[in-house]
Design a protein that fits this description.
Layout lengths: L2 H7 L3 H39 L7 E4 L8 H12 L3 E6 L4 E7 L6 H11 L4 E6 L3 E7 L3 H15 L22 H8 L13 E7 L4 E2 L6 E7 L2 E7 L13 E11 L6 E11 L6
Parallel strand pairs: 1-2, 9-11
Antiparallel strand pairs: 2-3, 3-5, 4-5, 6-8, 6-10, 7-8, 8-9, 10-11
Helix pairs in contact: 1-2, 2-3, 4-5
Length: about 280
């Protein structure tokens, strides 16, 4: 029986508490691994970009020290940061590496793997997934070949317009509705998906505090104000907050979320995009 199930089924308070503490420790270790892997992946990408004159249309990364348990999370983080179809690999067994893929709108990642598999039979040992996420296994010795075929496939089936990020917003929301009750109502419509995206809103805010890293690894937080109300806003995308300072007026596209890491729970705006606000002149 797994530790999580043991914790849920425990009839003794002390045993349940001990299991919960162990689970929390394991989760903290996983987060630390995730953060380290993401930092290594983004640094590797930065090094590649500085050493080449062209911009790849895909991201395909591998490191022998990376952990299989978090490659999916890291792939999602890198995809969000670079807005490129992304595959992150980790060692599997006997010369194999296992990859977790995340894609962007307009590029069906499972179909892409199928095309590569038909182009070079045997290159991909096994794969499966759907439009936006997939998993695969290849021989470590075939990584360079796979990386090139992945890039070639993307350049065949995508165009430069694909990489123009489009954010569909519901517009602004009245300040009286920016509260926890509204978030809880919205969450009743979950799960969100590719054709049923989580609602995004946008409005103009004044930044009150500069970005800071929170105790939750990888999360960057700022405080902002709108209509005399102060809000907590955060993102896992550090690049979009570069240069942001207290006093800036910005337009923020955000999702409404609940910060469950504090008591009592608080409303949190998860930033999808941020840009300087410019008054329209007549």
């Amino acid at each position: 029986m797994s530790l999580g199930i043991e914790c849920l089924l425990a009839t003794d308070t002390d045993a349940a508490l001990q299991a919960a503490r162990t689970l929390d420790k394991l989760n903290q270790e996983r987060r630390a691994i995730e953060t380290r892997m993401k930092e290594q992946a983004l640094q590797h990408l930065s090094d590649l970009q500085q050493s080449t004159t062209h911009q790849d249309w895909t991201v395909c990364l591998y490191h022998p020290d990376w952990h299989q348990g978090v490659i999916g999370i890291v792939a999602a983080r890198v995809k969000d940061s670079r807005f490129r179809p992304t595959i992150v690999f980790a060692d599997d067994q006997e010369g194999m590496i296992k990859g977790s893929a995340r894609s962007i709108p307009g590029y069906h990642i499972r179909d892409a793997l199928d095309r590569i598999s038909r182009t070079r039979p045997g290159l991909i040992v096994k794969f499966g997934g759907h439009a936006m996420a997939a998993g695969l296994t290849i021989h470590q010795s075939d990584l360079d070949l796979f990386r090139q075929l992945f890039e070639d496939d993307a350049r065949t089936h995508l165009n430069e317009e694909t990489f123009q990020i489009e954010i569909l917003s519901e517009g602004d929301i009245e300040p009286r509705h920016l509260r926890l009750d509204t978030v809880r109502i919205l969450k009743q419509s979950e799960p969100w998906g590719q054709e049923f995206g989580e609602p995004v809103f946008d409005d103009v805010f004044m930044i009150l505090t500069p970005p800071r890293i929170t105790a939750r690894q990888g999360l960057i937080q700022v405080s902002c104000q709108n209509s005399n109300s102060r809000y907590e806003a955060a993102t896992f995308k550090p690049d979009i907050l570069k240069g942001l300072q207290a006093g800036n007026r910005v337009r923020i596209a955000y999702r409404m979320d609940i910060n469950r890491y504090c008591r009592p729970e608080r409303l949190r705006l998860m930033i999808e995009h941020i840009e300087p606000f410019q008054e329209e002149r007549v």
